[in-house]
Amino acid sequence: MKAMMLQFKESDIRFWSDKYDALQNQKGREKEKSLHNFRTDIRQSGFMTKEQLKVIADWKAPRSASHVEKNSADFVKEITAWSLSAKEERSKIEVLTLLNGILWPSASVILHFFHQDPYPILDWRALNSLGIKNQKQTNQYSFSFWVMYVEFCREVAQHNSVDMRTLDKALWQFSKSKGVQ
Hints:
This protein has 181 residues and is mainly α. The chain has one domain. Helix content is 60%, strand content 0%. It has nine helices and no strands. It has helices at 13-23, 26-45, 50-60, 73-85, 89-94, 104-114, 124-128, 143-159, 164-177. Helix 1 packs across helix 9 (164-177) and helix 3 crosses helix 6 (104-114). It starts with 12 loop residues before the first helix and ends with a helix.
């Protein structure tokens, strides 16, 4: 696999993140705000509810979010509790894919917003902004790829004194603004 490399100047991270915020529509703002509103409750309880999971799935992958309904409330609680308390990186991400309607990208959203450690969102637009093309198929993801992506994003965020959400928005917006389809 080709090495990851930021496709814009690191000094432009805040610019692209701010542009993301400026261009987001009202519905998008409201959906993202609901995710932020869940943060304290989920971090304190150590798990998420089925209702919270449905909101997360709808934010990341609206077309497949209905599959979340197939999970029992107890299963959602157990799996998310395992993920959010796991010590092993592989457990943190892969256990979430046991949930119906949650593939690697949606699992990364859960870690991004609700885990204590910083995690990027696995998204083909963000990957495109790192020079990784043709990653729209979620079956192409693996744990080794995930770890490489997380480490790269953590290094970039730390080097530029930005949080992971700022970097994530910048990566997504750069690709969107360049008209990548």
